[in-house]
Design goal:
The chain has about 625 residues and is an alpha/beta fold. It contains 22 helices and ten strands. It has a six-stranded mixed sheet with strand order 6-7-8-3-9-10, sandwiched between helices. Strands 2-1-4-5 form a four-stranded antiparallel sheet, covered by helices on one side.
Length: about 625
Amino acid sequence: MTSTVSGPTDTDARRTEEIAPDAPDPSAGDPVAQDVLPAPKGASLALLRSLLAPARGRVWLTVLLLLLQQAAVQAGPLLVAYAIDRGVPAVRRDDYGPLVAVGTAYLACALASGLLQIAFIRVSARVGQNALLDLRGRIFRHAQTLSIDFHERYTSGRVISRATTDVEALRELLNDGLQELMGIVASLLLVSATLLWLDWGTGAAAVVSFLPLLVVLRGYQRRTLAVHRLKSTATAAVIVKFTETMNGIRPVQAFRREAVNEEHFDVLNLRHRETTAAAMINMGRYVMTSRLLCNGSLAAIVVWSSYRVASGDLELGVLAAAVLYLRRLYDPVDQIGMFLNSYQSAAASLEKIAGLLAQRPTVPEPEHPAALPARPADRPGSEVVFKGVSFAYRTGGEVLPPFDLTLAAGRTVAVVGSTGAGKSTLAKLLARFYDPTGGRVLLDGVPLTDLAAADLRRHVVMVTQEAFLFSGTVADNIAIGRPDATREDIERAAKAIGAHDFITALPDGYDTDVRKRGGRISAGQRQLVAFARALLADPAVIVLDEATSSLDIPGERAVQRAMRTVLRGRTAVVIAHRLSTVEIADRVLVMADGRVVEDGAPAELIAGTGRFASLHRAWRESLV
């Protein structure tokens, strides 16, 4: 390495990875700012259109069904007007035909309305559920493609909130809201047209009375969107805190953090209650104002129309029908408020989902992937070259200044150094969890950025100190390294690592469910399973990031034996705090402040007077 980096400690580096420049410190920043992901203008509507596009035919069918259903419903007042103005005079002449016809038509309309409503609900439900199924799948698939740095700054709780509460808000809109909207629009159009047809003056007065309602509606719409944006963020914050606490329940209980966590949760819970209450108050104000306007308009039109009936300018049946239609015209005003409440909630959620889906991996797939050259049978492992590589996190703090480094094929290189020296960053660049800020990392002469992700993961495998296991059987967790492996392959890998005996001693052997995060087995056993997984994957390059740092002495020795098996015949980079791990290395790199300060064989460095010799002496003394 050629230049020096001063300053960043390992703690600072980890903190830098977790906090993006546009997302404040979770302990001090505003949760609203943390929850915002920018999306292109119009992304929300584009997302909704793409969800509904596959069901375009069904969407138009729902519109047709709803129009027919509304026509059947709105025919009632017309039949009442006909019965009053034509049927009743006919009865006086002993002619019951018109009245029977009206009654029959009314029953037919009621039956048709019910059947059309059932058909509408069935078709619209299918459209809505298919759209939600598609959306949840998109969120899950996309979240897995996003790079490590995104997940380090945007917590899993927020991703979960996008796929649960925000999708649920959209479900309410698709299942109920769209039906309400189309019903309201169809009702308003049909009622207005019918009123104008019955009596132009009454119809015109009714249409004009809607102008002040539109002003009230517009103000309510603006306020509701702002309220639901805050509510969606407050809900996500509650989920994040809950998820974080439950995932960290062991340290929570070990360090008696229950009371502190409860205080923090109460603050977030209170904010959620306040935003929910604000939405309800906003809705209440709209309902009160709109009803006042509607009732006032209805009273004025009825008084005016009654005067016209008394003057002989309007028939009594037309007045009766007009009153019924006016009630139907104003009744949906409350429904409009309910729909807007549901719509703005869904719009706020859709904005956040669109923002998530708009994120792009910072470690992208190449458009035209390159193939790795075939390795000679007599050459184990692959050559790794860091060429002019430098790295800085998103906040701008440089961790690794420009350097060159070549790792020979089939050799094991140990990387040691104090906390914050840049060891783990070097490993993550090799595994391509990050891309260098400058320069290139090459595998057998091919830049990692030119390799397809699947090809890279087959050739480079990283084992961390966490040794994460998924819920499922031991065999399933080992086979993650090669999903098509047979049971014999899995057991062979476990035997080679030295894990077979403890696995067979489990209640169901290889079919034992390790439960959440592998909590059913010990840390050392989880690490052995992780090594068996890596051995089964058979990579050319393996990276071990402090794979023994959390183990006791017996566990460390068992893992070290497994390490020798895994590393044999491969290029290996071993990040180590414990110098006992270095004994298996062919070469040692000592890092300090982001640069290599010593480089040589373990015995050569131990015999010298440099940093590694001092570290080795201190380690030997600690053993005594």
